[in-house]
Amino acid sequence: MRRVVCAVVIGMLSAAGAAQATPYELPDAELNTAEFGQLAGYSASTSTLDGKNDVAGPGVQFALTLSGSDDGKMGTGDLWLTNSAAGFGWDSVLGHWTSLAAYDSYRMNVKYVSGPADSTVNVSLFLNTGLTGLSGDPSNDSTNDTFWAGPWTELSLGQTATLVLDFSGAEAWHIEDNKEPHTGWDDPTVSDGDSYAINERDRNEITNIGLQVADFDGNVLGEGQVVLHLNVPEPATLGLMVAGGAGLLVRRRRR
Question: What is the percentage of the chain residues whose pLDDT exceeds 90?
Fold first, then answer.
């Protein structure tokens, strides 16, 4: 009887897992590449990426100094994704490893590790779509490019949050001039700053992906370095790992 119940439960879990959409998460290997760094000319601020530390266990810590105008806003990411560490899929139409068409969102767990006492920082995920070079569609056309952003999240010192850029509705910029086959080309009402679903063509043409950081309250600007832990493990995951270990101990003791 117990075997039958277990089989039914496992079958239900497998079916539920198959029905769930899959979020894309940047691997630690990609965060550690030399190409994944501060994006030049991202904003008018004087903020800087000061260093990266591949800590033990999941995740990479980024040391930043937020300063200057534009709320200290800065972007860290990989422009053009010239390496294979990101693990993107193959786009058979244009012949590039630039596809996230198999995913429904881009997700990252971020922790505000250290900074000024009682301070907050603001974080958001972003990506660019639309190849603009020779292999673009249309070829050599800058209108292919669209910037997509997820919602901003405020992190208090010591707080962890899961950031999500949902492909079914993300804030779009540089979308008003998109041509076929890019998102919004057939909708004359599209407007920069509004949210739209990223169509499959654009999800096959990821040209840049990363994290943007700002200080909207101004309590970090000019106050020294802050450290963010990207890809920090979820508390639920850690709980499952601990529980699994405890279960093994119980089984061993019973034997």
Answer: 79
For 39-83, write each residue's pLDDT tens digit. 998 999 999 999 999 999 999 999 999 999 999 999 999 988 878
Q: CB under 8 Å to 218, separation ≥6 — which residues?
A: 71
Range of the domain at 94: 21-242
Asked if residue 112 belongs to a domain, the reply is yes
Q: Is residue 5 part of a domain?
A: no
CA 148-151-157 angle, 5° bins: 130
Flag whether 194 is in a domain: yes
Residue 251 lies in a domain: no
Q: The domain that contains 63 carries what CATH number? A: 2.60.120.260
- Cα dihedral 228→230→234→239 (10° resolution): -80
Question: Which amino acid is residue 185, in one-letter code?
Answer: W
Write down the pTM of the prediction. Answer: 0.84
Say if strands 105-114 and 23-24 run parallel, antiparallel, or are unpaired. parallel
Asked if 207 and 136 count as a contact pair (C-beta separation under 8 A), the reply is no
d(CA 90, CA 105): 17
Considering its fold, how many domains does the chain have in total? 1
Residue corresponding to tokens 């804030």: 171
Q: Give yes or no for residue 227 having a pLDDT over 50.
A: yes
64-90 core/surface letters (b: 16 or more CB in 10 A; e: else): bbbbbeebbbbbbbbbebeeebbebbe
> Which tens digit of pLDDT belongs to each residue from 104-118?
999 999 999 999 999
- Name beta bridge partners: 62: 52, 228
Q: How far apart are CA 237 and CA 245, in angstroms?
A: 12
- Strands (E) across 17-71 are located at 23-24, 37-38, 48-53, 60-65
